[in-house]
């Protein structure tokens, strides 16, 4: 069973996001927010997207408003902000909860993965990152403070690109 099996989530624009389309690709799943001190990470996430998209990689942004209300916008407002401010081209899902009783099933499948410090469980803040390999297995977790262009994260992406 992969992280994507039987997980339904809508795209930011509405309609199914069809997560099974990512089988065969390396995917960096990131809970994002537009009004956070870490929001400038959108720039480096987009650079990562541009650098590796033609090699079977994508970033998948998952808006979440659970951390001090830092993603209050509607789907249209989020899409406009990401496009106009950071030139985001990677796919985005609907806004979901990543913690608590309402945790989206996608995050239920992600949170048992430990980061380099051994943290598992609840998402700590916006911009926590999970790397999923082309077979749909969660292979790495990165703290919100880990920059998308850090040597550690880039090495993990390169290691898990499809052959």
| CATH fold-type name | Glutaredoxin
Largest sheet: 4 strands, mixed
Q: Spans with pLDDT under 50 lasting ≥5 residues? A: none
* Integer-rounded radius of gyration: 14 Å
Count of individual domains: 1
Q: In one word, what is the shape?
A: globular
Helix content: 10-25%
Describe what you observe in this structure:
This protein is α+β, with helices and mostly antiparallel strands and 163 residues long. It has a single domain (19-160), classed as 3-Layer(aba) Sandwich (Glutaredoxin). It has 4 helices and 4 strands. It has helices at residues 41-52, 75-86, 105-110, 151-160; strands spanning 26-32, 57-63, 129-132, 138-142. It has a 4-stranded mixed sheet, with helices on one face. Strand 3 (129-132) and strand 4 form a beta hairpin. The two termini are 21 Å apart.
Attribute tags:
163 residues; globular; 4 helices; alpha+beta; Glutaredoxin
Task: Provide a brief overview of the structure.
With 163 residues, the protein is of the alpha+beta class.
Describe the SSE topology:
Elements: E1 26-32, H1 41-52, E2 57-63, H2 75-86, H3 105-110, E3 129-132, E4 138-142, H4 151-160
Parallel strand pairs: 1-2
Antiparallel strand pairs: 1-3, 3-4
């Amino acid at each position: 069973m992969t992280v994507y099996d039987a997980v339904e989530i809508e795209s930011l624009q509405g309609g199914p996001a069809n997560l099974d389309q990512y089988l065969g690709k390396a995917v960096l799943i990131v809970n994002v927010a537009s009004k956070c001190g870490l929001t400038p990470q959108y720039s480096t996430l987009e650079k990562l997207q541009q650098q590796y998209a033609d090699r079977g990689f994508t970033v998948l942004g998952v808006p979440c408003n659970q951390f001090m209300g830092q993603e209050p916008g509607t789907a249209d407002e989020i899409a406009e902000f990401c496009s106009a401010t950071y030139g985001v081209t990677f796919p985005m899902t609907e806004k979901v909860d990543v913690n608590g009783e309402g945790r989206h099933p996608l995050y239920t499948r992600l949170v048992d993965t430990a980061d380099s410090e051994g943290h598992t469980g609840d998402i700590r803040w916006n911009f926590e990152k999970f790397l999923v390999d082309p077979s749909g297995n969660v292979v790495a977790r990165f703290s919100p403070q880990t920059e998308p262009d850090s040597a550690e994260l880039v090495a993990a992406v390169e290691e898990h690109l499809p052959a």
